[in-house]
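To fix ideas, we quote verbatim a fold written out as tokens:
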Amino acid sequence: MNLRIVGCNFRTANVDVRERLAFPPDLHARASAELAARFGCEVAILSTCNRVELFLARPHGATVLSTELATEFLGEVHHVPPETLTPHLYSHADADATRHLFRVAASLDSLIVGEGQIAGQVKQAFEAAQQLATTGPLLNALFPHALRTAKRVRTETGISLGHVSVSSVAVDYVKQVFDHFGDKTILVIGAGKMGRLTLKHLEELKPGRILVANRSPEKAAEVAAGCGGTPIPWDKLDDALGEADIALSTTGAGEPIVSQKRFDKQVRPKRRHGRTLVVLDIAVPRDFDPAIHDGDRVCLFNIDDLTRIREQTIAERQSHIRPAEAIVAAEVKNFTDDWQRRKNGPVIQQLRSEVDKVRDEVLTPLLAKLNGKLSLAEKEQVAAAFRLFQNKLLHGPIAALQDASKEGDRGTLIEAMKKLFRLG
């Protein structure tokens, strides 16, 4: 197949190494063109925060670029001594390389198994290579098949079900409590990084109103402006809690800002009858006293609760790895078998043509000699017998060629067949 992948990922290289080997758009274009021109091979580069991989291919002819040359190229492009890169790099060839790409696209090789972003990144890498005209027959067949495999894994297994970030888990829970959000009020307390990320997910629910409370009026106004919300003075926090349906808290305060006593005295009496409050307390230390949770009208979740739900989701995804790997194995076999058929097609066609020619050279004068002695039906029987003999004769060499291709030992047999059958 003449396919090789050389690269590193989050398992083999820390973030410092991956950052040094990353390919921003301008370098990606230059490096792809240089690789293709210098070594005469098809090229695609996948560069993400968790992996950097070179895909190198030659559909026919000499063996594709060696691991050593690829490592030297990476060092040259990034101004890093190759010997410092070698311990962090892996290399896969042919069927193993195909399996690796299919597993990557299906998110089986991801930091978080089942994450959906990698398939899009693989697609972008392929489309970028196509635009740079560095792909050819092999990569143009390989990448679309990888993406089809990823789609099969997503649709036929549960490996991508459920969210696994704390912020998205929080939103998933909120969606279980409320079935609509157009009349709901979200209160944001504080302005931590995790809180802002969670707020982005909550904004997608299109709530009726967002209130922002912060000890700093300037910070409250800044966060409110970013989400189309309304800043609330810090001394009006109790009133805001009384109006909220969902409270998202991430202040980083040294002790709880809402005790059970304060909540029972200042907030519960102000709640509308029958109205539920969901508190997402993702601050460490916690902002809300856990005792305010009653499991009925007030549901409180802290960072440990959300992390536990996240871990349960990850565990559930693990149960789908085996069927996903089975799909990948089947698709790798489909691709390699199909590619061998494509690769052997011209040789097999030439062999059949040569034997057809020899058959006709023998059969035509024979039928001419027998002209008048055989009926038309009998002549057809003789011709059919010759064709059957030919097919049985060629079955062995063709089957041996296909088997040798699967085992990676096609070249010697091809040369032998060319000599034996006088092929061009």
